[in-house]
């Protein structure tokens, strides 16, 4: 590893501390990865020939129309009308060139996660042992290149779109492990929650801006413009990341000596970076707090991807919003989610620094918020019927509440084992990738020829059960204490705790 780089101040450093330059650029990087990940969900609404697809369903069910059962009649009664009496919300004006069935749509939306699934653990190893900075750059760069190539490959064959999405997934899989390694190297313990929140709230910002921008671009200039414009704008970030960000404070030139000392002394990394210790795999997989994070992460991602990927289709299929309204209303909750996430992270950090609460209690509180409130919102959504804007309000509350996950289990890897934060998040996020594959396929299967509220009640019901499982497991078994196996190859840390930590563990050490 390289020796310590002499620290020198900069104009930027006088305005914004170097660690928050990292947090801001990290947040923008996550926004790019998530924005390019979710843009297909909105663009596909404009890419599909809804009239032709509906015609196939009508033709397939035409012979059975005269023998509809009473149960089927009830389903038809639940059909919603477009809001405001618009008669062309699902008309030909919204039709695109592609006649893709619901199962194929599910495949196209889920194939991103095929690449995401296989790349995380090996790229986490690279981030921890080589450079998290360059791994994150790779994550964004491959997403940008594939996004720019998407229109060309999609027009050739839907297999070309699959290839681009899989490669984007490979890059996307590197983002969380890389940023966890960066946070572990840069964030003082008393600022860990707020820095993690600033960085990871970029996923919400990217989602909101992508949904909004994709809706405007696809309705005004066609679906191809979504990929050209968003891919092109993302190139600017890569140059800033290369110049302004380094792997740790000891390598950062644009940092004041005082800030470098403050960070490194709080983390115990005053000297140059040593060889990274090997991962104690056996101890990791025997750790109860690790399994609590893994289960919470997996269950939460099912709900997260339900909101992230499928809500635009729910609003199109059930509530009958047109493309432009769909995009605007789908993006709406992510802006207050950003504010809520940062405020909650700062509040919990402040209470912890003052000794009012422990790290364990802070993580469990945040995780409880991001499970109970969205679960209740989905339950309400099951029975709210065709009240369009009331349904949008309920969805928005659920999405905003999910922002608490950034201060909850999603940052918990750094608490229990900062030396292996990249590997741990790669492990849990690999498991949590499975819902990304399953959700679009599951929704496509349930809604095939059955695009009504009844079908979506089944989808929301499954999600509610998983939210409940996440809440129970993390509250009972989660912990915010550093685990003894984090000190790999060193004597057991007397301060470390391996035991289960119940929710009542409120007092923090002074």
How is this structure best summarized?
With 510 residues, the chain is mainly alpha-helical. It has helices at residues 11-15, 18-47, 50-61, 70-77, 102-110, 112-129, 132-156, 158-172, 175-186, 192-200, 202-221, 223-233, 235-244, 257-267, 281-285, 288-317, 323-331, 334-353, 359-383, 388-402, 412-416, 421-431, 434-447, 453-477.
SSE order and pairing:
Layout lengths: L10 H5 L2 H30 L2 H12 L8 H8 L24 H9 L1 H18 L2 H25 L1 H15 L2 H12 L5 H9 L1 H20 L1 H11 L1 H10 L12 H11 L13 H5 L2 H30 L5 H9 L2 H20 L5 H25 L4 H15 L9 H5 L4 H11 L2 H14 L5 H25 L33
Distance between the ends: 36 Å
Number of strands: 0
Q: Rg to the nearest angstrom? A: 23 Å
Q: How do the SSEs run, as a string of H and E? A: HHHHHHHHHHHHHHHHHHHHHHHH
Helix and strand composition category: mainly alpha
Specify the number of helices: 24
Helix content: 55-70%
**Low-confidence segments:** 63-77, 86-93, 489-510
Shape field:
globular
How much strand content do the residues show?
Answer: under 5%
Describe the sheet with the most strands: none
* Mean pLDDT value: 82
What characteristics describe this protein?
0% strand, 510 residues
What does this structure look like?
The chain is built from 24 helices and no strands. Helix content is 69%, strand content 0%. By secondary structure, it is mainly alpha-helical. It has helices at 11-15, 18-47, 50-61, 70-77, 102-110, 112-129, 132-156, 158-172, 175-186, 192-200, 202-221, 223-233, 235-244, 257-267, 281-285, 288-317, 323-331, 334-353, 359-383, 388-402, 412-416, 421-431, 434-447, 453-477.
């Amino acid at each position: 590893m390289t020796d310590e780089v002499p620290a020198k101040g900069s104009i930027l450093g006088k305005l914004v501390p170097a660690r928050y330059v990292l947090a801001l650029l990290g947040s923008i990087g996550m926004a790019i990865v998530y924005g390019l990940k979710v843009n297909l969900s909105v663009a596909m609404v404009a890419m599909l020939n809804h009239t032709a697809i509906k015609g196939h369903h009508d033709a397939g069910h035409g012979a059975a129309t005269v023998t509809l059962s009473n149960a089927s009649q009830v389903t038809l009664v639940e059909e919603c009308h477009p809001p405001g009496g618009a008669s062309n919300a699902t008309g030909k004006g919204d039709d695109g060139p592609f006649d893709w069935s619901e199962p194929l749509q599910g495949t196209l939306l889920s194939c991103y996660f095929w690449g995401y699934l296989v790349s995380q653990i090996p790229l986490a190893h690279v981030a921890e042992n080589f450079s998290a900075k360059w791994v994150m750059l790779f994550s964004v760069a491959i997403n940008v290149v594939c996004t720019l190539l998407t229109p060309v490959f999609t027009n050739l064959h839907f297999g070309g779109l699959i290839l681009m999405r899989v490669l984007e997934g490979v890059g996307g899989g590197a983002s969380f492990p890389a940023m966890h390694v960066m946070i572990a190297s840069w964030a003082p313990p008393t600022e860990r929650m707020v820095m993690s929140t600033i960085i990871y709230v970029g996923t919400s910002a990217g989602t909101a801006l992508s949904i909004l921008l994709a809706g405007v671009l696809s309705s005004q200039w066609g679906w191809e413009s979504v990929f050209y414009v968003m891919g092109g704008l993302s190139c600017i970030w890569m140059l800033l990341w290369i110049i302004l960000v380094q792997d740790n404070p000891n390598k950062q030139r644009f940092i004041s000596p005082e800030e470098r000392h403050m960070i490194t002394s709080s983390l115990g990394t005053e000297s140059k970076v040593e060889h990274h210790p090997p991962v104690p795999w056996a101890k990791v997989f025997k750790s109860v707090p690790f399994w609590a994070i893994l289960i919470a992460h997996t269950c939460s991602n099912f709900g997260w991807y339900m909101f992230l990927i499928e809500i635009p289709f729910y609003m199109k299929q059930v509530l009958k919003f047109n493309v432009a309204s769909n995009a605007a209303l789908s993006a709406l909750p992510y802006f207050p989610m950003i504010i809520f996430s940062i405020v909650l992270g700062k509040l919990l950090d402040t209470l912890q620094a003052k000794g009012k609460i422990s790290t364990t209690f802070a993580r469990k509180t945040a995780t409880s918020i991001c499970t109970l409130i969205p679960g209740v919102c989905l339950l309400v959504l099951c029975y709210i019927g065709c009240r369009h804007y009331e349904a949008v309000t309920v969805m928005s509350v659920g999405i905003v509440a999910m922002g608490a996950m950034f201060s909850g289990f999603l940052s918990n890897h750094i608490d229990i084992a900062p030396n292996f934060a990249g590997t741990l998040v790669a492990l849990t996020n690999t498991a949590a990738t499975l819902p990304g594959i399953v959700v679009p396929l599951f929704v496509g299967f349930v809604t095939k020829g059955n695009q009504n509220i009844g079908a979506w009640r089944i989808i929301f019901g499954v999600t509610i059960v998983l939210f409940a499982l996440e809440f129970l497991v993390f509250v009972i078994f989660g912990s915010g204490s550093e685990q003894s196996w984090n000190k790999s190859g060193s004597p057991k840390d007397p301060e470390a705790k391996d035991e289960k930590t119940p929710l009542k563990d409120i007092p923090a050490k002074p």
